[in-house]
Design brief:
This protein has 439 residues and is an alpha/beta fold. Helices cover 50% and strands 9% of the residues. The protein folds into two domains: 358 residues, Radical SAM ThiC family, central domain (TIM Barrel, Alpha-Beta Barrel); 59 residues, no CATH class.
Length: 439
């Protein structure tokens, strides 16, 4: 492999690569400040040294909240064309990254095709493939070897994957804590389940934790960002913020420090199912324990009773998490807990999560992010329907609804028609009018 200068080494000496300049466009921070935060570990730039991307992005403190879309085959449906269609839909809907979580078919071929087609950073969970190959080779997932785990990680990195989820915090200590929690849902993370089973069967520590330096060496060689996975994330709102989750988080905070010492970029993954009353404390706890590392949350889902609508549930939790300081939201689709998402589910999941991310950004930095909302409000005041569609987060959806709701020979829509409030008041209040002005 060709020797390349490590990103953090470049940034420390003041050299900013063009892809990072590109990623800084549309952000509240100047590229020099983003570079500084990548160096101190409060932001990451998810770009494998082997790749060039049309839409690179940085994730972290003070930046726009990013959105990830999961795609990938399953054992029941391994259709590459279907996955590429979902990839295209996710990117067109505005996803900042995608993760290929394939567990069925030719996993290598799917990943490499996704890498070839994606214009945004791509992440994976290599332990999935290691586990499936161990099942085929050894007859059991728990018989996979440590070398097979690391080989899968390096294979993904060598293919050009930009970031990987690695469940390094699934340790014997956290597993002991789990046994005392009385959880309803136990372990809902696939990676967490695989590695917990491996620890119990082999009576050994998780290799991804015990030999973390080996992981750091692979990451450094390929400029691979580590997404430190939450194998003990709660899968029921009643299980949130228990000792197993917190013990894993403490370990991840220690590994963040080791990553920074090695000039390896790292972010931290978080829950999961969390009641609304605990979302703020979960984000603050993760930020404190993990030294301000970028925080990546799944949802969070704030109730367990809405299958079919979990994208909305995740949007509620995601907006509050983002407003509190979460940097990166993983989308949830309407089929969460029910099945593999269809193309339309992917689109809806991305759009709803983007709404949540923007709502959070408005709370964190209204001076920068409210400009978009103000433009929309001005277009509404002007009854400029085309501009409203153009400014909307989902122009395809809003444009379609607008076309259905326009009234012939009327300025308004079918909600108010001739009794449109803005149309009515405009006849009596001139464009120069402003509240608080004597007339």
């Amino acid at each position: 492999m060709e020797e390349r200068t490590a990103l953090i080494e470049m940034l420390k000496r003041g050299d900013v690569p063009k892809p990072l300049e590109q990623a800084a466009e549309g952000e509240p921070l100047e590229v020099e400040e983003i570079a500084s935060r990548i160096v101190d570990g409060t932001a990451v730039f998810t770009l494998n040294s082997l790749r060039e991307l049309e839409r690179p992005c940085a994730i972290g403190r003070g930046l726009r909240t990013k959105v990830n879309a999961n795609i990938g085959t399953s054992g029941d449906r391994a259709d590459l064309a279907f996955e590429l269609e979902k990839l295209d839909t996710a990117v067109e809907a505005g996803a900042d990254t995608v993760m290929d979580l394939s567990t069925g078919g030719d996993i290598d071929a799917v990943r490499r095709s996704v890498m070839e087609h994606s214009t945004v950073p791509v992440g994976t969970v290599p332990v999935y493939q290691a586990a499936i190959e161990a099942q085929e080779k050894h007859g059991s997932i728990v018989k996979m070897t440590a070398d097979e785990m690391f080989e899968a990680i390096e294979r993904h990195a060598a293919d050009g994957v930009d970031f990987v989820t690695v469940h390094c915090g699934v340790t014997t200590k956290a597993l002991d804590a789990l046994g005392k929690t009385g959880r309803i849902a136990d372990i809902v993370s696939r990676g967490g389940a695989f590695l917990s089973g491996w620890i119990l069967y082999n009576d050994r520590e998780n290799p991804l934790f015990a030999d973390f330096d080996r992981l750091l060496e692979i990451a450094r060689r390929y400029e691979l960002t580590l997404s430190l996975g939450d194998g003990f994330r709660p899968g029921a709102v009643a299980d949130a913020t228990d000792s197993a989750q917190v013990q894993e988080l403490i370990t991840l905070g220690e590994l963040v420090a080791r990553s920074r010492e090695a000039d390896v970029q790292a972010m931290v993954e978080g829950p999961g199912h969390v009641p609304l009353s605990q979302v703020v404390e979960n984000v603050k706890l993760a930020k404190d324990i993990c030294r301000g590392a970028p925080f990546y949350v799944l949802g969070p889902l704030v109730t367990d009773v809405a299958p079919g609508y979990d994208h909305i549930v995740g949007g509620i939790g995601g907006a509050l998490a983002s407003a509190t300081g979460a940097d990166y939201l993983c989308y949830v689709t309407p089929r969460e807990h029910l099945g593999l998402p269809e193309v339309e589910d992917v689109r809806q999941g991305v759009v709803v999560t983007r709404i949540a991310a923007h709502a959070g950004d408005l709370a964190k930095n209204p001076g920068f992010f409210m400009k978009w909302d103000n433009e929309m409000s001005q277009a509404r005041k002007a009854l400029d329907w085309d501009r409203q569609v153009e400014l909307s987060i989902d122009p395809v959806r809003s444009g379609g609804v607008m076309a259905e709701c326009r009234v012939a020979d009327e300025v308004g829509c079918t909600m108010c028609g001739e009794f449109c409030a803005m149309k009515f008041i405009a006849e009596y209040i001139g464009s120069e009018f402003s509240l608080g002005t004597d007339t």
